[in-house]
Amino acid sequence: MQSIRTLTENIRQNNQTPTSTRVTATSIIDSLAEKVLGTIIFRTRLAKGWNGYDERTQKLAVQTWFEILQTEKVPAEQYDALYRRACNYQAFIIQQGKEAPDMSAQLMLAQWIGGNGLRAELERERIESGKYLPSNAESVCKHCNGSGFREVIDGKYKGVKKCNHED
């Protein structure tokens, strides 16, 4: 994947304009990520009263947003949720009488990282579901070794039951 820095260096070295630089977002980005990001960028522009990008510029914008979101390995399935969280954050800032930041990949990324980000929220949900132990499973539960099920021996029959991770 070509980074923005690489593109910029190539343009400077070859004295190229961005129109002669070849980047194909579809060859780098999976179709789900491309569709979702394309829609988010289009909605962002419409919300400001702007026209959508032409096809080439749209692909470059999608490529750029994708590259930013991939710095933290954000799954494409979460892009729409991050967009909605970023919109809610903007509304919260406006409600406080301040100027909200423009919608951007960085604003969406900010909704992913940190203790209150979507990544942490999803991890908490996963842990609370009882299907996952956050630390080294063997040291946390000696009965199930992190599987969530403990072995039960009733006479000569073996079985399993859900482990509550207590002695």
Q: How many helix segments?
A: 8
Largest sheet: 2 strands, antiparallel
Question: On the 0-100 scale, what is the average pLDDT?
Answer: 81
Write the element-wise H/E pattern from the N-terminal end onward. Answer: HHHHHHHHEE
Number of strands: 2
How large is the share of residues in beta strands?
Answer: 5-15%
Morphology call: elongated
Distance between the termini: 51 Å
Number of domains: 1
Helix coverage percent? 40-55%
Low-confidence sequence ranges = 15-27
Structural class: mainly alpha
| Rg result | 23 Å
Strand order of the largest sheet: 1-2
Summarize the structure in words.
The protein is mainly α and 167 residues long. The chain has one domain. A hairpin with a 2-residue loop joins strand 1 and strand 2. Helix 3 packs across helix 4. The termini are far apart.
Keywords, please?
about 170 residues, mainly alpha, two-stranded antiparallel sheet, 8 helices
Topology (SSEs and partners):
Blueprint: H1 4-14, H2 25-28, H3 31-47, H4 55-69, H5 79-95, H6 105-110, H7 118-128, H8 137-140, E1 149-154, E2 157-162
Antiparallel strand pairs: 1-2
Question: What is the structure about, briefly put?
Answer:
This protein is 51% helix and 7% strand. The protein is mainly alpha-helical. It has one domain (4-129).
